[in-house]
């Protein structure tokens, strides 16, 4: 079991509320996250950190920091959703579909809504790209486009980046400030 209270960035204000932590930092909206990660949640937690390190959007300005994860592979998207769920961040999640103009948006919306078990109202309008002329390529197009998971919280973004630095980069001898 991991107590996340022991793994929060410096200057983070913490209020303990049973199994949850109310976490805040100057100028940022408070978050209510789970305090204890049970042993059965650890693999999803660490896999979620790895998914975000590899597929998450990393560069923002100080005023637009947020969690954004993009992937077209349903099992990875579902795992990232479960990562957010064990942290108690899933209720802040919104989604957006990005697809080529030759893919039916309504089918894609139904697919992702059912896959993630979230209502259609939690989806932003889609990003639709014009289909490029056929080029001899072995690239496969995702039949339901890619899904963007977004959480508009600078503090959640900073926490996840801090955990990636703490649990992976520092222990593996990587560069600082990733």
What does this 3D model show about the protein?
The strands form three sheets. The protein has a four-stranded mixed sheet with strand order 6-9-7-8. The chain has helices at residues 39-55, 74-87, 105-116, 154-172, and strands at 2-3, 13-17, 20-24, 31-34, 36-37, 67-71, 94-100, 127-129, 146-151. It contains four helices and nine strands. It is elongated, with a radius of gyration of 18 Å. Strand 2 and strand 3 (20-24) form a beta hairpin. The mean pLDDT is 87. The chain starts with a strand and ends in a 6-residue tail after the last helix. The protein has one domain (40-172). It is of the alpha+beta class and 178 residues long.
Tally of DSSP β-strands: 9
Mean pLDDT across residues: 87
**Rounded Rg:** 18 Å
Query: Secondary-structure element sequence?
Result: EEEEEHEHEHEEH
Give the oligomer, counting copies of the same chain as homo and different chains as hetero. Answer: single chain
- Total number of distinct structural domains: 1
Helix content: 25-40%
What count of helical segments does DSSP give?
Answer: 4
Tell me the distance between the termini. 26 Å
The coarse silhouette is elongated
Low-confidence stretches: none
Features:
3-stranded antiparallel β-sheet, 178 residues, 9 strands
Summary of the model, kept short:
Helices cover 35% and strands 22% of the residues.
Question: What are the SSEs and their pairings?
Answer:
Layout: E1 2-3, E2 13-17, E3 20-24, E4 31-34, E5 36-37, H1 39-55, E6 67-71, H2 74-87, E7 94-100, H3 105-116, E8 127-129, E9 146-151, H4 154-172
Parallel strand pairs: 7-8
Antiparallel strand pairs: 1-5, 2-3, 3-4, 6-9, 7-9
Helix pairs in contact: 1-2, 1-4
């Amino acid at each position: 079991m991991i107590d996340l209270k022991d793994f929060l960035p410096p200057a983070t204000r913490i209020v303990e509320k049973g199994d949850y932590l109310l976490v805040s930092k100057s100028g940022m909206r408070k978050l209510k996250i789970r305090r204890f990660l049970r042993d059965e949640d650890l693999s999803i937690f660490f896999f979620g950190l790895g998914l975000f390190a590899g597929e998450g959007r990393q560069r923002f300005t100080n005023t637009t920091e947020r969690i954004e994860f993009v992937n077209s592979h349903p099992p990875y998207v579902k795992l990232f959703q479960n990562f957010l769920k064990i942290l108690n961040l899933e209720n802040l999640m919104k989604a957006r579909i990005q697809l080529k103009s030759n893919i039916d948006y309504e089918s894609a919306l139904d697919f992702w809504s059912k896959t993630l078990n979230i209502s259609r109202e939690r989806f932003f309008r889609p990003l639709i790209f014009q289909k490029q002329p056929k080029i001899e390529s072995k690239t496969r197009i995702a039949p339901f486009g890619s899904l963007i998971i977004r959480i508009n919280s600078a503090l959640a973004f900073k926490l996840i980046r801090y955990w990636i630095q703490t649990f992976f980069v520092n222990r593996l001898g990587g560069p600082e400030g990733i």
